[in-house]
Amino acid sequence: MSTSGSQQLFSTNVSADLNTALEARTKDPLWYLARQWQLGEFEAETGGLPMQVHVEARIYPLETCRVGGRSVDVSAHAPLEYLVESEPTGPTVRPDGWKPSALEYGFSLSTDRHKMEARGYDGRAMDWHDFSLTLQGGSPGEEQRLEMVPGQLQIRGVPEPRFWEIEDREAYFDSGEGAEPNILSLLLPEFFYTDMKNWYTIPAPMPSGAVREIQDVRVVDSFGVVSSVDPVGARSAPRDDPWSIYAMDLGDEERTNSSTLLCLNTAARVGENDLIEEVRFLRDEAANLVWGWERQLTGSDGLFATVLEPGEAIHADEADALASTADLRFRLKSETARSFIPYLPRQTAGVPAVDGDIALRRARSSEAYSSKNPQYRGEIVAESLYLNEEDVPRSGVRVRRLHRFARGSDDEVYFWIGRDRNIAGPTKKPKLTFDDFLPVTADK
Predict the structure, then answer these.
(1) What is the C-alpha to C-alpha distance for residues 118 and 126, in angstroms, rounded to an integer?
(2) Are 272 and 417 within 8 A, CB to CB?
(3) Is residue 235 pLDDT above 60, yes or no?
(4) What is the mean pLDDT of residues 238-248?
(5) Is this prediction's pTM over 0.70?
(6) What is the mean pLDDT of residues 209-221?
(7) Can you tell me the distance from the alpha carbon of 106 to that of 94, in angstroms, rounded to the nearest whole number?
(8) Hey, where are the domains in the chain?
(9) Do 110 and 62 meet the contact criterion of CB atoms below 8 Å apart?
(10) Which residue, 77, 85, 98, is CA-closest to 126?
């Protein structure tokens, strides 16, 4: 032991027997009991674990799908994407459910008791949260009774229940890395390390393409105590915050319904084939308009039409001509490629709107284009005479028409032409300028 500086004592186990170390004995169990009493862990807690769950429910199969002005019987085997997205045959190719002003699909599903209205389905990954629920009268449905054994909820990074089991080190919820600490970064570790053992899951199978109403859930714990479990957020009066995870919105009412579960008969995977056309709607704040850029088009020969990239000059020699300061001419507006169709803001009210009701109206970039000789060449822009101003964010919108296919539950393959909407991402815009002075030698 050193006599200078700090002094430390280290214990060393010189025994060749590892049994004592592997026992991991608690040296002071009374101290642990005192801490549990001090933290209130002995107050009004039975400590029972859920051993069995009894569920009573009713099943209502989906019957009809209303797309546009027509109703289609919902098949138990055909994917819902095929019923909703398929383009009709004939002179018009716009699907009945496609809303060109909002660039999304709109349709509804019905059972004998429920009506689900789709909101904002963008052609990608249809799921239950795309619908709002409306209850209506009807038959009581098919009764379903389930008895299940609950299992512990497992998520990557949660401490393992056994003492000597090696845990997954890929996820740490209490690490100091990542975003700036906030209240959520403090609650998340507490949830995972303290409350995770209080969450259980049960396997509750239900048929695809149906709605299930939960009537009663009873839990039997290890002490034989039977408890009824109410759905999360079950209230009859409107709430200050109507949002609730895993709960369907009740139409326009500020309430949610956690007792109704929707299982859609969607495709396990939708395959994508040849692209027909792609249009990007881009905001141009400097020009105070939105560009509808027909980025890719398929001609009658089945090949993509040649379109100009954003920012590509119409007159290649214009830059060289600007080097000369000889005779100048005035140019009111610069020219843009034909593939860029402008959308101008227009008030939607009959009188000047005081609340800012604005729609985007399709226009033209040159007088050479008309209704008989339109500037657009694709179907997406042709259908979208007006666009909702709020549906074109600053990041832009990308809309595609493409061939799709999926396999139904009856192993039959379904082919159709569908659409999807996504964020456009960073994209250059045409360099539109006004009131320029150019040399006379420049192309006009």
Answers:
(1) 10
(2) no
(3) no
(4) 66
(5) yes
(6) 93
(7) 13
(8) 57-148+202-263, 159-198, 271-439
(9) yes
(10) 85
